[in-house]
């Protein structure tokens, strides 16, 4: 096989750095990553202003790396909004290494988020909270944020004051509960003088697993740094929606099993700086974030659909879970899939850090609020009401209640993944006879845990090759968590009941991908693990390099001892045991009632 690795990009970037006259004052520069499709529109916008957009230092997989002057970020944000309806449309990085990691995927092992079962079984607690959501509370928050300060710009005192006010409001909501903390997240001054605000409800039984619900606090008027930027829709509405979700949770005595964090991010408008800082902190500290919901603009109904579900830079399985929440808890409301481009809101920061994220939007990208980023983004645009935001607040409540589980006062919490027995997802152990991970107990699912992490002799994979009867060996080329590997497999019923013939199940595979274009995961199932006849579920591309989660559904056949196989390959065609030197195969055996 020909050498497929790229040359040293650090040297490329160093050579491509823009040069400035030595006599000119030294202006701070930042690295950004931006969708390659945005380069030409941005360049044209710069030229209209007599400016030059630097050439990309690196372009790969639809993402480009540029080194720009910090003063150009606002011009770039304006171009993204005017030309592509994106907000901000790029991610700013303080270092070259951060920008490279965003494009290439870090070669260091990343923590793998727990593979949760997306079940809907917490109706009593969710409905108790839904009934308390009030339009007036959301409206009052939007109105205060958009009228008290001329702007909530990230680098002005008014932006800092808005963050302090929100911290005070959230502290009042917490009302002395010892399991809730509210704090400012202080960023480096070069990132954002404005802090982010985080309210945390510590989980009762799974405190180390985290659910995040966020929106951005800052606002911007792209006509100038001193111009009025009320930002009623963008994004006081999102912050108000999540604030109301937080309020009804506390008012109903809700105590989640998993930790829930409500976040109001600083400095979204100039490159997702606040959320990128926070998401990377969670990644670098190995925090197990199992799901993220982003609320950016919730109060303007520009489309006939109630929700636009962003499909790019989000997690497909979690998106499916989110739309099922809409159908279950807000029947009659509609949704459609949309794309919003690279770095269009804070969900992209979490996705880039390897965490599952979803973003429901108020419209389609071509029918969004025309007043955002202007002095006209006021509550009057929506008739002085926050009625449209109510459904987003309710979606946040159902997302929290069904993903973090736990219960409100007087209700019984449903089970959360883990342990053994009916209604729960079991963790596999190695079966020395069949030579693969196996769950022998009946349950709602089976999870390989850490048994499959790595490939062959690369990395910590134990009992390799982990295929039934050692029938298929792994490719031996490459480096652990730089090249391809299956790291985890899970199968679980969609409805949370026990595995049974005829039940719809979701297969969740965590892989380490080298390339979004050259790598493919083939998923198979077999009704009889002792003598498998493999049936193809489908072949799937990872969404990017690094740790990626891929999901697929199928219906369980008849058989008490079944199995799934993941065949992760570099190039080639689908097969149960491909022979590429970078390929990895793993099986998971489980009991079906």
UniProtKB/TrEMBL annotation:
At the top level, the lineage of the source is Bacteria
* Entry-linked SUPFAM superfamilies: Zn-dependent exopeptidases
- What are the Peptidase M28 domain coordinates in residue numbering? 197-383
Keyword Signal listed? The answer is yes
**Which GO BP terms sit in this record?**
proteolysis
List the InterPro entries: M28_fam (IPR045175), Peptidase_M28 (IPR007484)
A GO molecular-function annotation: metalloexopeptidase activity
**Keyword set, alphabetical order:** Aminopeptidase, Hydrolase, Metal-binding, Protease, Signal, Zinc
Q: Which residues form the signal peptide?
A: 1-23
Q: What is the name of the protein in this document? A: Peptidase M28 domain-containing protein
Q: What is the lineage of its organism?
A: Bacteria, Pseudomonadati, Myxococcota, Myxococcia, Myxococcales
């Amino acid at each position: 096989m020909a050498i497929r690795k790229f040359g040293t990009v650090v040297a490329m970037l160093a050579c491509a750095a823009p040069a400035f006259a030595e006599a000119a004052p030294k202006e701070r520069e930042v690295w950004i990553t931006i969708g390659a499709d945005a380069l030409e529109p941005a360049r044209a916008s710069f030229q209209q202003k007599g400016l030059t957009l630097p050439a990309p230092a690196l372009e790969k997989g639809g993402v480009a790396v540029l080194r720009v002057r910090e003063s150009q970020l606002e011009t770039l944000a304006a171009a993204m909004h005017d030309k592509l309806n994106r907000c901000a449309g790029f991610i700013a990085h303080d270092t070259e290494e951060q920008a490279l990691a965003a494009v290439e995927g870090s070669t260091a092992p990343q923590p793998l988020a727990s593979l949760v079962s997306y079940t809907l079984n917490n109706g009593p607690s969710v409905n108790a909270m839904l009934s308390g959501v009030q339009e007036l509370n959301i409206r009052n928050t939007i109105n205060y944020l958009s009228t008290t300060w001329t702007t909530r710009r990230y680098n002005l005192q008014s932006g800092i004051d808005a963050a302090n006010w929100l911290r005070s409001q959230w502290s009042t909501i917490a009302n002395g509960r010892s399991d809730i903390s509210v704090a400012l997240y202080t960023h480096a001054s070069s990132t954002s003088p404005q802090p982010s605000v985080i309210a945390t409800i510590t989980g009762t039984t799974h405190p180390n697993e985290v659910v995040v619900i966020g929106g951005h606090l800052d606002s911007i008027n792209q006509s100038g740094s001193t111009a009025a930027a009320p930002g009623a829709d963008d994004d006081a509405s999102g912050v108000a929606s999540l604030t109301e979700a937080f309020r009804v949770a506390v008012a109903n005595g809700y105590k989640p099993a998993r930790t829930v964090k409500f976040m109001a991010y600083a400095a979204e408008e100039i490159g997702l700086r606040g959320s990128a800082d926070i998401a990377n902190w969670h990644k670098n500290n190995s925090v197990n974030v199992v799901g993220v919901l982003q609320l950016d603009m919730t109060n303007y109904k520009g489309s006939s659909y109630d929700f636009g579900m962003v499909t790019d830079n989000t997690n497909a399985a979690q998106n499916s879970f989110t739309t099922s929440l809409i159908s279950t808890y807000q029947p009659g409301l509609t949704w459609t899939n949309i794309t919003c481009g690279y770095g269009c809101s804070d969900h992209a920061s979490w996705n880039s850090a390897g965490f599952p994220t979803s973003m429901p939007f108020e419209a389609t990208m071509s029918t969004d609020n025309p007043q955002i980023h202007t002095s006209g983004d006021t509550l009057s645009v929506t008739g002085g009401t926050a009625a449209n935001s109510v459904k987003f607040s309710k979606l946040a409540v159902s997302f929290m209640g069904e993903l973090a589980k736990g219960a409100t006062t007087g209700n019984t919490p449903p089970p959360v993944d883990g342990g053994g027995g009916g209604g729960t997802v079991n963790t596999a152990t190695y079966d020395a006879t069949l030579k693969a991970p196996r769950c022998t107990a009946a349950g709602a699912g089976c999870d390989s845990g850490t048994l499959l992490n790595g490939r062959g002799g690369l990395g910590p994979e134990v009992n390799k090759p982990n295929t039934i009867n050692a029938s298929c060996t792994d490719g031996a080329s490459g480096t652990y968590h730089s090249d391809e590997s299956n790291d985890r497999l899970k199968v679980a019923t969609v409805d949370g009941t026990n595995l049974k013939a005829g039940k719809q199940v979701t297969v969740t595979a965590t892989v380490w991908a080298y390339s979004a274009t050259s790598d493919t995961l083939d998923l198979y199932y077999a009704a009889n693990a002792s003598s498998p006849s493999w049936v193809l579920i489908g072949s799937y591309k990872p969404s990017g390099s690094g740790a990626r989660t891929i999901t697929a559904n199928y219906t369980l056949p008849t058989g008490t001892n079944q199995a799934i196989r993941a065949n992760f390959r570099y190039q080639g065609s689908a097969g149960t045991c491909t022979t590429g030197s970078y390929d990895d195969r793993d099986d998971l055996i489980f009991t079906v009632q």
